[in-house]
Structures are given as C-alpha cells and as structure tokens.
TrEMBL record:
Protein name (record): Methyltransferase
GO BP annotations listed: methylation; sterol biosynthetic process
Pathway this chain belongs to: Steroid biosynthesis; sterol biosynthesis
EC code: 2.1.1.-
GO cellular component terms given for this protein: endoplasmic reticulum
Similarity field: Belongs to the class I-like SAM-binding methyltransferase superfamily. Erg6/SMT family.
Superkingdom to which the source organism belongs: Eukaryota
Entry annotated with the keyword NAD: no
Native source species: Euphorbia lathyris
Residue ranges annotated for the SAM-dependent methyltransferase Erg6/SMT-type domain, each copy included: 54-341
Length: 346
C-alpha cells in the first residue's frame, strides 16, 4: 500500500536526510537554481547531489499526491487519472513488445509504481535502477506487498554509469526520468551499452517543444520554474533528444509528442481551474489544504523544519508545468522507440 496519510507524509519528509538537516538541505537545493542565483553548469556538475536532495525532500509529497507512479499521462475523456497512468504504462510495454520471462531495465524507477504494473502486465522480470536510496527502500517494501519481489529487484546506481555488463537486457524503458541526466548522450550511451543488440529502448521524455523560444523571457521563467520544482539541471528540446539517441548508436523507430494528441490535457490535475474528488490532493484546493496541514505538522514538530519550503518549490513546479503545458512549450511525454542495431554496421 502506498503511504498516503498525513503522518506518512511528515515521517517520510526528507527521505534519507537526517530530520535536523532538512532545512539546510532545502537551502542547498534552492541555491542550485536560477531563482536563487544558481547556474546551469553548476547544476550539471553536481547533478547527483542536486537530484538526490530533490527526491529525498519531495518523495513523500509525491506519494501523498500521486500514489506509486510519479508521472503524467496521455488521457482520454471519461478516463480517471489513475486509469490513464496505467494505460500510459501499458502503451510503453506494448511498444517494446515485451514477452514473458524477458529481462527488462527501468531507468530511474522512482518507488517502482510503473515497474510493478508493467512486470505484472507483461510477466517480465524488471530491474529498477535508481540513485535514490530512500525511494529504493520504499520500492522494496511495496514490491514485497504485491508479491513481485522474487521477479523484480532494485539497484542503487547512477544511470550515467550503470553497474551492468554490456548487452544484458532484452528491453529498457525510462519514464520521465532521463530528463535528470546532465547530458542526454551520456545517459543514452549507457542504455545502448547494456541493451542486447536488436532490442528496443522506449521512453517518455520531459522536453521543451519547438514552440519554446529561448529568447522569450516568459518562456525562460516557466522553464526555470519547472527546473527548480522538479530537480532538473536543464530541459532539452525534443530535437536534442533525437540527436543524442542517434549519436549514441540507436535507430529511432518513431517518436511523437503525445501531449499534442491528448484529448484531456496532461496538466489538468494541477490546473487551478480544475476540481476533481478522485485526485483531490493534486488540485489547487487540495494543495492549499496540504500546505496548511504541513504548516501545522512543522509547527508541532511532527514534520521537520523546512517542510513548508519544500511544498513551496513543488507549488512553483505545478504553476510552471500548467503554464508550460497551456502554452505548449513543454511536454512530459515526448515518446520515442529506438532500436539498438543487430550489428555495428547496420
Ligand atoms: C519523476 S521520477 C520518475 C520515477 C518513475 N519512472 C515513475 O514514473 O514513477 C524520476 C526518477 O529518476 C531517478 N533518477 C534521477 N537521476 C538519476 C540518476 N542519475 N541515476 C538513476 N536514477 C536517477 C530519480 O531518483 C527518480 O526516481
């Protein structure tokens, strides 16, 4: 079961960071970002520290608001958010052509929501790679509860230097995770190396779209809000990801920004004008309640000092994401399917 209560939120806040150090971790995290004078080079050079601090601080909020899967979804009318999230995962499995018994790698697996769903949907064995220890601990607990702990496991490592031999996986996927890489080519090259020849890599990437104008100050502000609110060193445009895939050696089978054809906008759950009882905690009213609840929990000492500051940068993320989505300058679902050729000459 996902930890969804207010006390779970308070007790998980800070992840592996000592509770007395949460406030200083928040301050250090904020300083990496443009809003606090931080620079892109510094975020890239210190990506592991920056991203790990972010997930130690934000994971219990994610679990409280989203559940076990930390991603958006392409969504049809009449479909609940949870249904659309599962269908988004099934779509990925279908595109990869997963077969029972295959060995699959989930790059940047969070607490393993997608891993549990995809492994049960396709009867595959999935390894979740994640650099965040707290998330892995949660993932192991949840795998045990649903009974996939014999077929699926977690490895704590950086996806820029994976501890796996060449040609070890039948398929690799990444859901809204490789956007944290300081450089896409370095990350995709590692994925290429560990994937067996002839096999596929599929991903949902966070990207700026072709409508993003790097000289437009409003666009720059929205991009910076998404970066601070989501632990990102920089957000690449879609074309840069395709170039990086090709440079790493992949043949790109197809790619598409699925946000462009989503009948229900992916950012709707966070939009201030939207209200939903089934995803209440994500709505503006729900976030307002959470904000006040965290304030009280911090005041009475149940949540560590600095908790409200985490909620503040997550609120910035929500605002940046909704604006970026509305203006169609940002997408969290640039999908691609790429194949590692059978031989080097192919
Ligand atoms: C937005 S979450 C998505 C998690 C998961 N794919 C899901 O959809 O639930 C991004 C994940 O990428 C992981 N991550 C970020 N940078 C990483 C790195 N350098 N190496 C391994 N994992 C990383 C984070 O720890 C986090 O689990």
């Amino acid at each position: 079961m996902s930890k969804a209560g207010a006390l779970d939120l308070a007790s998980g806040l800070g992840g592996k960071i000592d509770k007395t150090d949460v406030l200083s971790a928040v301050e250090q995290y904020e300083k990496y970002h443009i809003y606090y004078g931080g620079a892109e080079d510094e975020r890239k050079a210190n990506y592991a520290d920056m991203v790990n601090k972010y997930y130690d601080l934000a994971t219990s909020f994610y679990e409280f608001g989203w559940g076990e899967s930390f991603h958006f979804a392409h969504r049809f009318k009449g479909e609940s958010l949870r249904e659309s999230i599962k269908r988004h995962q099934h779509f990925l499995a279908l595109q990869l052509g997963l077969k029972p018994e295959q060995k699959v790698l989930d790059v940047g697996c969070g607490i393993g929501g997608p891993l549990r769903e995809i492994s049960r949907f396709s009867l595959t064995s999935i390894t979740g790679l994640n650099n965040n220890e707290y998330q892995i601990q949660r993932g192991k607990e949840l795998n045990h509860i649903v009974g996939v702990d014999k077929t699926c496991d977690f490895v704590k490592a950086d996806f820029m230097k994976m501890p796996f031999p060449d040609n070890s996986y039948d398929a690799v996927y990444a859901i809204e995770a490789t956007c944290h890489a300081p450089d896409a080519y370095g990350c995709y090259s590692e994925i290429f190396r560990v994937l067996k020849p002839g096999q596929y890599f599929a991903a949902y990437e966070w990207c700026m779209t072709d409508s993003y104008d790097p000289n437009n100050q409003e666009h720059q502000r929205i991009k910076a809000e998404i970066e601070i609110g989501d632990g990102l060193p920089d957000i690449r445009v879609t074309g840069q990801c395709i170039e990086a895939l090709k440079k790493a050696g992949f043949k790109v089978t197809w790619s598409k920004d699925l946000a462009a054809s989503s009948p229900v906008p992916w950012y709707l759950p966070l939009d201030k004008s939207h209200f939903s009882l089934s995803s209440f905690r994500l709505t503006a009213v729900g976030r307002f309640f959470t904000k006040n609840m965290v304030k009280v929990l911090e005041y009475v000492g149940l949540a560590p000092q600095g908790s409200q500051r985490v909620q503040d940068f997550l609120e910035k993320a929500a605002e940046g994401l909704v604006e970026g989505g509305r203006k169609e300058i940002f997408t969290p679902m640039f999908f691609f399917l790429a194949q590692k050729p059978h031989t080097e000459s192919q």
